[in-house]
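Notebook entry, structure prediction.
Reason for the run: the old model in the group folder had no record of what sequence produced it. Starting over properly, with the input documented here first.
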Amino acid sequence: MKIKVSAFAALIAAVLIGCNKPVSRQTEEKPCEQKLDVSEAKLDRFGITNRDYLSTASKRALQWQYVENDWYRVFNPMKSLKGDLAYEEGVVRRDPSAVIKVDGLYHVWYSRSTGKTDGFGGDVENEKVFPWDRCTIWHATSKDGWTWKEDKEAAIPLGEKGTYDDRSVFTVEVMQWQDMYYLCYQTIKSPYDVRTKNEVGLAWSNSPNGPWTKSKAPILKPADNGIWKGTEQNRFMVEKKGDFDSHKVHDPCILPFNGKFYLYYKGEQMGEEILYGGRQIRHGVAVADNPKGPYVKSKYNPISNSGHEICVWPVDGGIASLITTDGPERNTFQFAPDGINFEIRGAVKGQNMPHAIGLNRTLKATKENPTAVFDWGLSHVYNSWHYQSIMRFESYRKTSHVAQGAKAKTGKKKKDTQKDN
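New structure, fully documented this time:
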């Protein structure tokens, strides 16, 4: 799926008038007051002619807290994998987890199914309504990150008929913590129609090779405060939309943070709208004292105005997030020192943007290079609507705009100054 909107334009549109002080210090009794820096140096940097006649756009520019390019990334075209994860006609492999390394081997988990997609309107009890329908979760290993060997059986099978995960388990993420491995993933209970509410399951093992013990109940559910209108299978007909996650909780990812466990997820709202150039998708977080839960949704949800697949990682004492695909803030890197209050830190060039990123958690982000985890990783591509495969992405940090043969900006590292055409 190609993103045609300019990432930089999305960044400009997303940075609204706000306060420079941390959110936690703001109160209803003492609202913050935004002051503009109209010094000659600031006006000259942004090419603003007259401090007495400031457009709304100029005011936004003067309010930007982060104007450097330390977070800016450019993605190269994705490359095919070898071995069992090479494209295979008739097989869906999609939504790879993060990549981890154990005993000299890279490990990844992903959704896998077979056969074409039938869609809705037919026999939803027996057909396949989406590529991620009727999936199980599989595991593969690699010595070099290119050639992968798939296990002979699913790591996470479907639950028994009548259980919360008897229809599909998919979009998996992995967390390694204190010699244990945890897989969180989406679940669907049959039948799968357009009003079905997706939930989140969990499995754990003392080895990346399993066997896995599954949670007997979901660890996260949609909010139960929306009201459907009528009984027709139409997800846009509602009497009350409810919370941002009243329909589905998707794309779970658990990170250890500040002595607790933060479960980030995508929320879909009943009666979802098209809003600001994309679907009305936002992210939320639920927090637990133990990896197995119970997880309690944050009172500050939703914690994003945009996004799709969850892509989060720890850096500089906080949590960073790549927001893609939907909403006015798409194609931006965001950062929250407290894991909840995210601010835009940089844009991402939309060309070659991976869809459903599996981060390489063997790479470490640092304060000096906060996006180093994107040097390479995995993602899926749509070979067709029916079939997807997993490929490898690579990217580089771009801190200056340099024509071929020209000198790079003083002080920038050579690896950050790739030439432009």
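Summary: The CA atoms of residues 8 and 249 lie 29 Å apart.
The old model has been moved to the deprecated folder.
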